[in-house]
Amino acid sequence: MPYSYRVCVVVFCALMLGGAAVAMAADAAKGRSLYQEYCSMCHGAQGKGNGPAAAAMQPRPRDHTDSAYMNALSDDHLMRVVSDGGPAVNRSPLMPAWKGTLTPAQIRDVIAYLRTLAAPASKP
Ligand code: HEC
Question: Of all protein residues, whose CA lies closest to atom 24 belonging to ligand 1?
Answer without folding.
Answer: 81
